[in-house]
Write a structure and sequence with these properties.
The complex is a heterodimer. Chain A is mostly helical. Chain A is built from 6 helices and no strands. Chain A is elongated, with a radius of gyration of 42 Å. Chain B is an all-alpha fold. The chains are: A mainly alpha, B mainly alpha. At the A-B interface, helix 1, helix 3, helix 4 and helix 5 of A face helix 1, helix 2, helix 3, helix 4 and helix 5 of B.
């Protein structure tokens, strides 16, 4: 939205004096009415959330004035398909729905205020979680290294089947030297 | 029934604000069923002004009008919410309804921010009054040439 304006360019007095009072009488006859039909809770929620649109069949023209039938229904206050304009006019003149819409707006306002605060908290929480996970992983790695170090000999134990062992002993020169046998797989040299 | 016609005229006024209004000559008969042709024509003057002049400025005047005169009671909480939304640029004029504006008592600074630019409300108001006089007072016949009206938004 373009907000390039300066409220100081116009004389303040002139601004504050202009009340458009000549047009006030256009809204003077507005008063509360008695209704038999009210928009449902879902429709009021959609209206408050600004999700209730005008009749899509009406295009960009307000559905109330689309044809005489629609207008007659509006006048009778019996509206089968509530549009935004219908709901706005109803709430404007129905004290019951006014109260309900007021409560809906208050709770929506609270939710939006919470949503504004949450991103900062979530970022802090994520940062804390990431640091904690990193520290835990490092600790676990150190403990694992300390645990495995003494249990891991430099060379694995040589397991030789009895038959093969005898062949080795018998086939080796009896000079009393030390013979080291390595194996790569079970039962084989 | 008269009250309902009054409400229908307000619905039409709201449609002017949201740019969803029928051309005046299409609804003149419907909106003057209670004999209040002059009231209907005042709203038609706004509709015609929106077409001839800066539409956003005319809509800004309507926002001020609804904000101050649609409800006799001032609602500070409603005002606070709307002002914050306007300040944060989260509300558009086509989303506004008379009900949402009623009782909020917006200042001209808020209107300027909503419109996106500053204007002289007194001068714009006088232009609409002149247009009304030009259309309906000086000439008694239906003054809006039907062939000229085009609402191709």
């Amino acid at each position: 939205m373009d907000t390039k304006y300066s409220p100081h360019q116009l004389p303040e007095d002139e601004l504050h004096q202009e009340k458009l009072s000549e047009f006030a009488e256009l809204l003077a006859d507005l008063r509360q009415l008695e209704y038999h039909d009210h928009p449902s809770e879902d429709i009021l929620r959609a209206y408050v959330a600004n999700r209730l649109l005008d009749d899509p069949q009406a295009g960009r023209v307000g559905a109330t004035f689309r044809d005489e039938q629609a207008f007659e229904k509006f006048l009778r206050g019996r509206i089968p398909h509530w549009t935004r304009s219908d709901v706005a006019m109803h709430v404007l003149t129905c004290s019951v729905c006014q109260q309900y819409v007021m409560r809906l707006r208050a709770s929506r306002w609270q939710l939006l205020s919470l949503a504004r605060q949450r991103p900062k908290e979530e970022r802090n929480w994520l940062r804390r979680f990431a640091l904690g996970a990193l520290a835990s992983a490092a600790t676990a790695a150190i403990i694992a290294a300390l645990w495995l170090w003494p249990a891991s000999p430099p060379t694995p134990a040589c397991w030789i089947e009895e038959q093969c062992w005898q062949q080795v002993v018998q086939g080796s020169p009896p000079t009393g030297g030390i013979m080291v046998v390595y194996r790569t797989s079970r039962g084989r040299f | 029934m008269e009250v309902r016609i009054e409400l229908a005229r307000l619905a039409y006024a709201e449609n002017i604000l949201r740019c969803t209004n029928e051309p005046p000559e299409m609804v003149e008969d419907l909106l003057s069923l209670d004999g209040e042709l002059d009231k209907a024509r005042r709203w038609f003057a706004f509709a015609e002004a929106k077409r001839r002049f800066d539409s956003n400025v005319v809509r800004g005047l309507l926002v001020y009008l609804f904000s101050h005169y649609a409800s006799a009671e001032f609602d500070p909480r409603k005002r606070e919410q709307l002002v914050r939304e306007i300040t944060e640029g989260r509300v558009r004029m086509r989303d506004l309804t008379i009900e949402r504006l009623a009782g909020t008592r917006l200042s001209w600074e808020h209107i300027f921010r909503l419109v996106g630019r500053q204007f002289n409300p007194t001068r714009e108001k006088e232009k609409i009054k002149e247009l009304y006089a030009q259309l309906y007072v000086s000439a008694s016949a239906p003054a809006i040439p039907r062939t000229e009206v085009h609402y191709g938004y």
